[in-house]
Every structure is written in C-alpha cells, then in structure tokens.
Amino acid sequence: YGPMVVSTLKKAGLPTDIQYLPFVESSYRPTAYSRVGAAGMWQIMPRTARALGLNISSTVDERLDPELATAAAARYLLNSRQKLGDTARTIKSSEKYSLFPFVITSYNYGQSGMVRAMNKVGADYMDVLNKYKARGFQVAVKNFYSSFLAARHVAKNADSYFPGHKVAEPLQVDVVTIKTPVSIERLQSVFSVSEQTLKEHNTSLMRLVWTGRRFVPKGYRLKLPKSATGRSDQVAKLNSLPAEEPKFVEYSYRVQRGDTACGIAKKEGV
C-alpha cells in the first residue's frame, strides 16, 4: 500500500514521511481493530470516521478500505496542520519550533487536546512533553511521536535491520462499480475468482456480506486482481443478469418489557 499512501499524501500537500505512521497504528494491516473500537490501517474511531466522510454500516466499513481510509487520514492531518498552525501563530516565538510533532501527536491525542497543550505551555514540543499536565496526556500519548520517529528510522534503514528482506509489489487492481446489489456467489461466478481472493481485495465488506445475509451494496467499488485482458465482458455480463432475490427475509421486532435476548431468539427461532 506504500505507493498509494505516498501518492495520497503528495496530492494533499502533506510530508511523505507520514507514510510511516500506519506502522505505529496497525503495522499496515487494513483489517486491524483495537479494543476501543478504532479500525483499519489508520485506526480511525467511528465518530471521527463519520466526520471525515467515511461510511460505516452493516455491509461496509470504509475504515477498512486502505484507499478511502488513507484519504480520510490525510484530511484529518491537513485539518490538524491548519488548526494547530493557527494556534501556534498566536504564541510568541512559535516560529522557532516545528509544528510537525504536534500534528503527528494530534492523531493520537486529538486536535483540541493539542491546542489546549499549546495554549497552556507554548509551541516548544519538548516543553509540552515535560510540563503539560492533563488527565489524558499520559505515557502512550507522550511516546506517540517518538514511536513514529522510531518506525520511520527502522523503515528507512530496513536493509540494516532486516537483511535480505523482500519488498512486496504494489497492489495492482481492477475496480468495478456495482450498479445493483449483488451476492458474493454471483461475483465469484462472473469474475471467476475465489471468495478468498475477493476477501483479500475487499477488506471493507462486512461479515454479513460474506455469510450471504447481505448483498454487496449498489455503488460499492469492487476491487479485483489486475487482468491483462480487461474486465469489460465480465462487467457487461454482470449488468445483464436479473436482480437477485435475497436468501434471508428480515423483519423488525419491537422489544417488550421483560424481553431478553435469549428469549427473543427462542421465540423467533433464530
């Protein structure tokens, strides 16, 4: 995913060294989850994801899409740079200090938290680390920027730390926009790919889609292994097929006083 991340950062006008931040967040795993609910390569929380324009539903969690999540992370960091830069300009002698450590730390601690720290202590990052006191400003936050620097150092010197390592090839994919809801089984058949291959390329699709209880939704950008001959014939075939009937018919149940989850399940036979 490295080339895609670097390209996104360049387009956003951000330093390309930020490409090393996902090593700290998730070890570059698109499907990573944290115990507090953060998800994806960039470990974005649900509330932040929605504010950044990412969709989270029973069928798709766009935090798990490497491209969409990277674009969202870039938007967050751009906003941090603007917000923290505005704060720094109000502080005397702030031009002597780098804004970059504050921007990176804001990814863990939040923009408002870093604004409070700067307003209270100043624009010297080392002063903030040593002097700022707040309930949430603890070891993990204080170590975040140094962890980023360590990850950057190791990645840039990978030949020394991992002699003989091989760099993975950049991911090459074909992208097909789904025009009508479709099952995983139909996609496997039309595009002649396995379910495992679809899973590896479409990390944002949720469990209900893979178990057949939901269709891949309309508008979803399906990723497939790069084909030397193109996908036009397969796409035409997919679009010509009649709409599928859902395997499972779902209905609503209004919870009554005294109901339990087990009781409802037994009553409804699920």
Q: Quick recap of the structure?
A:
The chain is 49% helix and 4% strand. With 270 residues, the chain is mainly alpha-helical.
Give an overview in words.
This protein is mainly alpha-helical. Helices cover 49% and strands 4% of the residues. It has 15 helices and 2 strands. The chain has helices spanning 2-12, 21-26, 46-51, 66-88, 100-109, 111-121, 125-131, 139-142, 144-156, 158-161, 184-191, 195-201, 207-210, 232-240, 261-268; strands at 173-177, 221-225. Strands 1-2 form a two-stranded antiparallel ribbon. Helix 4 packs across helix 5 (100-109) and helix 4 (66-88) packs parallel to helix 6 (111-121). The longest helix is centred in the first third of the chain and has 23 residues, at 66-88. It is globular, with a radius of gyration of 23 Å. The mean pLDDT is 95.
Shape: globular
Helix content range: 40-55%
The total count of strands amounts to 2
Average pLDDT figure? 95
> What proportion of the residues form beta strands (DSSP E)?
under 5%
Order of helices and strands: HHHHHHHHHHEHHHEHH
Output the structural class.
mainly alpha
Q: How many helical stretches? A: 15
N-C termini distance: 41 Å
Rg (CA only): 23 Å
Strand order of the largest sheet: 1-2
Instruction: Tell me about the largest β-sheet.
Output: 2 strands, antiparallel
Low-confidence region ranges: none
